[in-house]
Amino acid sequence: MLEPVIITGACYQDDRGELRYNNNFDVSSVKRIYLIQNTESNPVRGWQGHKVEQRWFVAVNGVFEINVVGLENWDSSKPDLPVKKFKITQEQLDVLYVPPGFATAIRSLAPGSTLLAMSDYRIGEIVDDYRFPLSEE
Known about the structure:
Strand content: over 45%
Structural class: mainly beta
Strand order of the largest sheet: 1-9-6-11-4
Low-confidence stretches: none
CATH superfamily: Jelly Rolls
Oligomer: single chain
Largest sheet: 5 strands, antiparallel
Shape: globular
CATH class: Mainly Beta
Distance between the termini: 27 Å
Number of helices: 0
CATH architecture: Sandwich
Order of helices and strands: EEEEEEEEEEEE
């Protein structure tokens, strides 16, 4: 099974401004993109998982903590394996890759944070959306 991983980006600055880039991220599998902005009163979105679909996440504004857990029992009422925590910021164009078989809980760590999410399937192309209640942390 593949594991979630950060695909490292970078930031270049000079007198003209700033350029954030990620030359290590291959976007050829991406078929759909969308933006996520959690409310200040409810800064966590999750758990949501996919058996088949893979996702990529980029903080375009602010800071996010994305908790990722592998799933072995898709019929369980909650994710059942240890949680891995990833922090991504707008400082450089890091991409968090989440392969199939994992669920995420996405937490905004700064007001107004915006997360770019990418998927390798279009809406309605497959039925592969599994939701689990958030547990008290």
